[in-house]
Every structure is written in structure tokens, then in C-alpha cells.
Amino acid sequence: MSFSFKDIIAWKKSYEFVLLTYKATKKFPDYEKYGLASQFQRAAVSIIANIAEGSKKISKADKLRLLNIAQGSLEECRCYILLSKDLNYISEDDYNDLSYSIDGASYYLNAYCKAISENKALKDE
Known about the structure:
The chain is an all-alpha fold. It is built from four helices and no strands. The model is unreliable at 120-125 (pLDDT under 50).
């Protein structure tokens, strides 16, 4: 059995968040297509892409660097969720769904980072 990034709970939870992000940003005004909607989508995709890329890095430092980039993108998305709500681009229900989803993704991503950071079996640089 081969290990895949798709086996990482943090990736799974983040992927669910990306799908919700795309669903929510479809409702944005047309003039935001290349503005906030695009930036929100790119930041969300960055979370899963960096987790996936980091999963195949050999050194602990490389893994943690990419996971930290994913954490940064996740926090960027938290900002976009709030902004989207305050601009009335998303409903209160969408806001709650996105917030709940990103909280779960964040929890598992932070736990994954902690586990890697404490795992002495991974090669230190």
C-alpha cells in the first residue's frame, strides 16, 4: 500500500473547504470574478497544493516549510470569509459553513505540523 497526500486528514478537511469556497464564490457579483473571488479560490487551492507537495518532501524542514505556507494561505482564507460576509457576498449560512470547515481544516493542519515537528524519524536538515 502506497501513502498518498489524499490519506492525510488535514488535506481531506482542507479539500472539503476548497469545494465550499468554490460553491460560495460562484454567488459573488460578476465584477468580483477576477478580484476577491479569484484571490479567495487561489488561497484555498494553495492550502491543499502545499500539503500535497509537502507530503513527498523527505526532510522535516522542507515538509514544515510547505505546511507553514499552507497555514498562511488558510489564515488568508479566514480573512476572505469575513470580508465576503461583510460585503454581503455570502449568506450567514455560507459564512457559518465556511467558518466551520476552515476551523476543522486548521485544527488538523496544526496537528499534522506538530506531529511532523516532533517525529524524530524524519531527517533533520
